[in-house]
Specification:
Helix content is about 85%, strand content about 0%. By secondary structure, it is an all-alpha fold. It has one domain (about 10-420). α17 (about 375-395) runs antiparallel to α18 (about 395-420). The chain has helices spanning about 1-10, 15-40, 40-55, 55-60, 65-75, 80-115, 125-140, 140-150, 155-175, 185-205, 215-255, 255-275, 280-285, 285-295, 295-330, 340-365, 375-395, 395-420.
Length: about 425
């Protein structure tokens, strides 16, 4: 244990973030292979429908956990702000988790009972209840990680996340092997909640005192900052959540679990590539925010452009290799679990546009700006509405094209304009 701590201390924050991202991708790949091996095509679709619908917790967070990192990174007296405001933020997240729970339980019951391919039995109901409950609890630990990262303790935060990922993933594999695959998604959030609170209780016990110095003053300061920053980011985060989770649910609802499973599995692999490519820039978000907000824009711009190029190159290379591997093994039985090659190419373009939007937002959010918010939101919402019509008739390729076309015509011109302002 002591040797492990020494090893972690020798690593840079970017190294720890990269290790976590690589581990996420590797474990995600192994989990995907276990799902393919141990469940049917229909059960695969149901598994990912569970995950996608439960992941709607991000609609309640709406990027607040990420915004907290940038807001507190701008502050000079970080330690006192951390001490005085952690409880205020915690209280807010307790409300969010409660509303998430009472909202999603009936939504899941309605969705799975009224879909075109409704489930033949009710065995899923208990696992759905446990999954939503676990995620609701795990939401309350997010602000602790965010504010710890904002005061520069990125290695500490990501090391705890990595430990939770290791334990949670092992538990999820056991559940998949036991054919309790619908319980597998709750393993990681359960581990994150238990380990996260244990760490916070030992390292930051004042979090649990349920009081805050200068509470009214701090709530007023936080409210002002959130009204200035949070309002601008909400359309972007809603659009991001819609893009990530709604297409597979549309496919499941209209075309069944097998079709949804193909789209979900393809998205999972592309998201793994995205997670890996963002490792470096994720660790530099607090630094970029401080540089840009403290009138050191030239240095911040230089760092951002280097990270931007690195991230995009890694995305393109990853998508290319992924599609080429599936093309080479297109006659293998496992390839039928994924989308067709033409559908994958279109999906890769759509994902790449989203990755560019995320990158551009990192830079402008440090300046308290959100130039892509409206175009991104309306393109995503409009595309999904169109996808409900064409997805029902054309399947997954109809869903992808319906979203991709608005992105090309509404988002790409805005992206080019925003990048020109940076360069």
């Amino acid at each position: 244990m002591i040797k492990l701590k020494k090893l972690i201390n020798c690593l840079l924050p970017s190294h720890v973030v990269a290790i976590l991202r690589i581990t996420q991708a590797l474990f995600g790949l192994i989990t995907t292979l276990l799902i393919i091996k141990n469940v049917t095509v229909e059960e695969q679709g149901l598994y990912y429908a569970f995950i996608n619908l439960a992941s709607s917790y991000v609609f309640f967070d709406l990027g607040l956990s990420g915004l907290l990192v940038q807001i507190f990174s701008r502050l000079k007296d970080k330690k006192n702000y951390f001490l005085n405001n952690i409880f205020i933020v915690q209280k807010y997240y307790l409300k969010l988790s409660f509303f998430f729970f009472i909202f999603l339980i009936p939504i899941g019951y309605f969705y799975f009972n009224t879909s075109r391919y409704s489930l033949p039995d009710k065995t899923w109901m208990q696992s759905w209840l446990f999954l939503v409950t676990t995620i609701a609890f795990s939401m309350t630990v997010n602000p602790i990680f965010s504010i710890v990262e904002s005061i520069g303790k990125i290695k500490e935060s990501y090391s705890i996340r990595l430990l939770a990922l290791l334990i949670g993933t092992l538990l999820s594999w056991y559940l998949i092997f036991s054919h309790q695959y619908l319980y597998a998604p709750l393993a990681v959030p359960l581990a994150l909640t238990i380990i996260g609170y244990t760490w916070a209780f030992k390292k930051y016990p004042y979090i649990f005192q349920f009081k805050s110095k200068h509470k009214k003053t701090n709530e007023s300061i936080l409210r002002d900052k959130f009204h200035a920053s949070y309002k601008k980011t909400i359309p972007t985060y809603i659009a991001s959540c819609l893009f990530l989770f709604i297409p597979p649910l549309i496919s499941f609802y209209f075309n069944g679990s097998a079709s949804s499973g193909q789209l979900s599995l393809s998205l999972v692999f592309m998201n793994m590539i995205g997670i890996l490519s963002f490792s470096s820039i994720t660790s530099k978000i607090p630094l970029l925010t401080r540089l840009i907000s403290n009138n050191e824009g030239a240095k911040g711009k230089r760092i951002f452009l280097n990270e931007f190029k690195k991230t995009i190159y890694m995305n393109i290379l990853g998508y290319f290799l992924f599609i080429m591997i599936l093309y080479i093994f297109k006659d293998h039985s496992l390839s039928h679990r994924f989308l067709k090659i033409d559908e994958l190419c279109l999906l890769a373009i759509m994902n790449l546009i989203n990755q560019v939007i995320f990158l551009v937002n990192i830079y402008y959010r440090a300046k308290n700006q959100e130039p892509l918010a409206k175009s991104y939101f309306f393109a995503t919402a409009g595309g999904l509405l169109i996808a409900m019509f064409f997805g029902h008739r054309l399947g997954n390729i109809g869903i992808i094209i319906s979203i991709l076309i608005p992105y090309v015509f509404f988002c790409v011109p805005k992206i080019i304009k925003s990048l020109r302002r940076i360069i």
